[in-house]
Design goal:
8-stranded parallel β-barrel, alpha/beta, 3-stranded mixed sheet, 493 residues, 15 helices, binds 4-nitrophenyl beta-D-glucopyranoside, single chain
Length: 493
């Protein structure tokens, strides 16, 4: 039995939901139709295309703005219960502000949402998945505390337009990528590099306040009428100690990468993870700053943010090992999170292999450990896995046994976490429905269950073997042996 222990626990809990995800900038294209405004990703890809691996942009992407009916067919073929999309802020509000709501933007999302519901597919909608209106970026974006009110005003429009039909809401996708990569390390739009994580931390705090205000708006004004659920989505890598001696640094690394965005929301006491707060304060003082680079929360702000969740939205792809640094040593190449002042390095273990895009190391057991960690750290919260997936690079790559194995092994570990560890996972989302614009990797990293031909003006989509596997899994709501060779007919193309 190649799927290991899941053979004894083949079926998913009743009501468990499966979905797939995309994001507006990565699939829609139509970057300048009608009155759509310019986003920070439009701007970066146009002005600084050398920062994108293949010099590409999301100008056309999968052209889902025009081809969403084809996407709908694919979703029906897969039999998913929900489809996670994001809304483009500048498509709906071209200036970033609600002084002008785009009729075209409204029409596009209304048609898509209605069509999904007609097919019995639930829309799960992310309000902010990285495409900040450039107008607001010019005023500081996530480093301007007013961003909380700008996001709130946008969210009010969104809820007013769509909350009658959308019942699963996500405020913001992956703050750690927005803040640490966007405002500290300069690897995502707006590509700011700030010394000593100053920008990352400003963004971190403002973003949590913004999320909390949007959560509370929904909770107070829309939930009573529409009864949906809403949370934030965090990206968590599983980090484990390289040797037993590294367990404190591993704890710290987990608090720095995961805790800085989760502790203020999910912990009983709220606020920054204490150990992170303590160390950044000490370092800041040593470096001659008048106050901690990690901006303090007031008592009121702590209370505003604490408890603003209906579930834990989890994006998970990969794991790393944490090793304590010798004072003379440099950080490893794989430390992609802002960790400027900590005495650890992020590394890989012997035997781990890195997938196509350079950062994704598959380690299925890490998924189970992480799910358990979330439960230990934040209590018995409902967890919705909002992304999980694997990237390849080849074109015309239909028999994607490696991606199929990745999803199979990760879902297997998730099932073990549910059945053996009692973790309350309520759904799983594969990233992604189809190949798309993978940020700074352009079209080189392909995460799709469906392949997209980006040289074809019609952007033809073709199901991969992994799509057939996922469809079978959803159909039977139980794990099926697939490696036995003879019984693989179901998955043959
Ligand atoms: C997520 N990492 O980003 C995003 O939510 C998606 O938009 C994206 O396409 C997908 O995962 C695949 O990358 C990530 O460095 C970016 O570990 C970077 C990392 C993980 C996720």
């Amino acid at each position: 039995v190649t799927v290991g222990q899941c053979a004894s626990y083949p079926s998913f809990p009743p009501g468990f939901k499966f979905g797939v995800a995309t994001a507006a900038y990565q699939v829609e294209g139509a970057w300048n139709v009608s009155d759509k405004g310019v986003s920070i990703w439009d701007k970066i890809t146009h002005d600084k295309s050398h920062l994108i691996l293949d010099g590409s942009s999301g100008d056309v992407a999968c052209d889902s703005y025009h081809l969403w009916k084809r996407d709908l067919e694919m979703l029906t073929e897969l039999g998913v219960h929900f489809y996670r999309i994001s809304l483009s802020w500048p498509r709906l509000l071209p200036t970033g502000h609600p002084n002008h709501i785009s009729e075209d933007g409204k029409r596009y999302y209304n048609e898509l949402i209605d069509a999904l519901l007609e097919k019995g597919i639930e829309p799960a909608v992310t309000i902010y998945h990285w495409d900040m209106p450039q107008h607001l970026q010019d005023l500081g974006g996530w480093t301007n505390p007013l961003i909380a009110d700008w996001l709130l005003a946008y969210a009010r429009v969104v809820f007013t337009l769509f909350a009658d039909r959308v019942k699963i809401w996500i405020t913001i996708n992956e703050p750690v990528m927005i803040c640490d990569l966007g405002y500290g390390l300069g690897k995502h739009a707006p590509m700011l590099m700030t010394p000593n994580d100053i920008g990352s931390y400003m963004c971190n705090k403002n973003l949590l306040i913004a999320h909390a205000k949007v959560y509370r708006l929904y909770d107070e004004k829309f939930r009573p009428k529409y009864h949906g659920m809403i949370s934030i989505v965090n990206h968590l890598a599983w980090l484990e100690a390289f040797t037993d001696d590294d367990s404190y640094m591993t704890y710290l690394a987990m608090q720095n990468t995961a805790g800085r965005y989760s502790h203020p929301i999910y912990s009983k006491e709220g606020g920054w993870p204490p150990e992170v707060e303590r160390i950044v304060a000490i370092n800041s003082e040593r470096q001659g700053y008048p106050r901690s680079r990690l901006p303090a929360f007031t008592r009121q702000e702590i209370e505003l943010v604490r408890g603003t969740f209906d579930f834990f939205g989890l994006n998970h792809y990969t794991s790393r090992a944490i090793r304590t640094l010798d004072p003379s040593e440099k950080r490893g190449a794989l430390s992609f999170f802002g960790d400027g002042e900590y005495n650890y390095t992020i590394t890989e273990r012997p035997g781990w292999t890195v997938a196509g895009n350079g950062w994704l190391i598959p380690y299925p057991e890490g998924f189970r450990y992480l799910l358990k960690w979330i439960k230990q750290e934040y209590g018995d919260v409902k967890i919705l896995v909002t992304e999980n997936g694997y990237s390849t690079e080849a074109v015309n790559y239909i028999h994607d046994d490696d991606r199929l194995k990745y999803h199979k092994d990760y879902i297997n570990q998730m099932l073990l976490a549910i059945k053996e560890d009692g973790v309350n996972v309520i759904g799983y989302t594969a990233w992604s429905l189809m190949d798309n614009f993978e940020w700074t990797d352009g079209y080189k990293a392909k995460f799709g269950l469906y392949e997209v031909n980006f040289t074809d003006p019609r952007r033809t989509r073709t199901p991969r073997k992994s799509a057939k596997f996922y469809a079978e899994l959803i159909k039977h709501q139980r794990f099926i042996e697939i490696d036995s060779g003879t019984s693989s007919a179901l998955y043959a193309l």
